[in-house]
Amino acid sequence: MSRPKEFIPDEAIEKALQVFWHKGYEATSMEDLLTAMDLNRGSLYDTFGDKRQLFLKVIDRYCHGFVGEKFSLLDQPGPALPTLRLFIRGMIEGGLADPQRRGCLIANTVMELSPHEKEIAGTLRQVLKMAEDTFFRVLARAKQQGELKKDKDPRALARFLTTMLQGTIVMIKAGAPADAVNQTAETALSILD
Amino acid sequence: MSRPKEFIPDEAIEKALQVFWHKGYEATSMEDLLTAMDLNRGSLYDTFGDKRQLFLKVIDRYCHGFVGEKFSLLDQPGPALPTLRLFIRGMIEGGLADPQRRGCLIANTVMELSPHEKEIAGTLRQVLKMAEDTFFRVLARAKQQGELKKDKDPRALARFLTTMLQGTIVMIKAGAPADAVNQTAETALSILD
DNA sequence: TCCATAGTGGAACGATCGGTCAAGTATAAA
DNA sequence: TTTATACTTGACCGATCGTTCCACTATGGA
Fold first, then answer.
1. Shortest CB distance from A167 goes to which of B22, B163, B173?
2. Is residue B68 part of a domain?
3. Domains in chain A, number
4. How high is the pLDDT of residue B9?
5. What's the pLDDT tens digit per position in B104-162?
6. What CATH number should be reported for the domain holding residue B95?
7. Using the CA of A42, which nucleotide's C1' is the nearest one?
8. 3-class SS at A161?
9. Which domain holds residue A187?
């Protein structure tokens, strides 16, 4: 072994995540990252590779940490539909509570990079599919448990909720009033009745 | 008078629109614009100002031309709800038909610039409000004409449709399969029944 | 025909971009 | 204590960014 790092890679990634989340990929400069992560160029390039590789690590962290953690709540046994409603409301409440209205890093990145970055686009598509599939499981369970009417289509509803969530993020970033966003969420959720 | 322009400003703006729509604001360089618009630096700066001013003109053109034109169809007399359904399906069909999946310039710009460009953000918020208000008018008319059930709330539904459209744009840019997007649109429209 | 006007074309600006590199330094193992 | 290893630091790279500026050219009116 040799001289140990003076920073904790995980914490540095987290700092980078905050910057990318706030400013987007292109608008974030290496200078921004160096400042926020509080390390020097050499350390950054040696440890994380170039800007693009760092961003991939950030995306990975965001998906597995931030998002995956919350979505895993949906797969727990118990009443399905109330949990789903709480989840949706919680996500939106969280988005509205952010004073910077940064929205969701996944949606932000889809909009900024998907047309030109096929690899990243593929990753993001998988994440959105994962979200849809999680919604599908909880809806199928709700149907099985008699919480959801028999004529409802879990797959269609799962897709609907995924799309709805993305739309809400756009509206939040556009600066829509909180009460309008909440009303829209309730309107969307009414489709589960 | 003096020497006339060798280009048509309106056509040049249209070319710039295509580039910004495809690549976004930051990722579009003046070089890209000069090439696409087929004019030289001097002419561009003299006629349209700097990059930001040009972008504002592009946004304006997109809103009044592209979007305003289509939304104006909703205010015509006659059956309201079928027209609204056709409109929504048409918008989504159009988005799916674009091989580049560029989505909507307004949504793209909201996601890229809203947090940092307050002036542009304000403009875009107005445009989204205009969309919501147009949906509201057609829904209120539908209710008045007995096409929409009495217990439906036109304002809530208008907001819902606006949000839904934005979400669909995200999914289209994310590369979602056409049939999934269409199914989601039908699920969303079923809320009008 | 001549001139004022304005468009054209391209060189050049400073700033910033992402990325590289080598010299210096601190650490753990031998 | 020595040595191999790898982190730190900051100067520096070429490329590209948006923008300015000026010599040149073409046009319509006097």
1. B163
2. yes
3. 1
4. 80
5. 999 999 999 999 999 999 999 999 999 999 999 999 999 999 999 999 999 999 999 99
6. 1.10.357.10
7. D8
8. helix
9. 59-192
| Protein CA at B34 to nucleotide C1' at D19, angstroms | 14
The arithmetic mean of pLDDT across residues B69-86, rounded, is: 95
Chain B positions in Cβ-Cβ contact with residue A124 (cut-off 8 Å): 174
Is strand C in 7 Å reach of the CB of A5? no
Q: Per the domain annotation, does A160 fall within a domain?
A: yes
The confidence score (pLDDT) of residue B1 equals 56
Chain B residues 34-93 with a CB less than 8 Å from chain A = none
- Assess if residue B162 is contained within a domain: yes
Q: Give the closest-approach CA distance of A2 to chain B in angstroms.
A: 41
Nearest protein residue to nucleotide D18 (CA to C1' distance) is: B30
Rounded CA Rg of chain A: 19
Report yes or no on B37 lying in a domain: no
Give A68-86 pLDDT, tens digit per residue: 889 999 999 999 999 999 9
CB contact (8 A) between residue A115 and residue B121: no
Report the residue of B19, B100, B102, B111 to disrupt the A interface, i.e. the one with the largest count of A CBs within 10 Å. B111
Residue-wise pLDDT for B23-41, tens only, equals 999 999 999 999 999 888 8
Distance set, CA A67 to CA A12, B45, B86, B119 (Å): 19, 45, 35, 31
Q: Say whether residue B22 is in contact with chain A using an 8 A CB cutoff.
A: yes
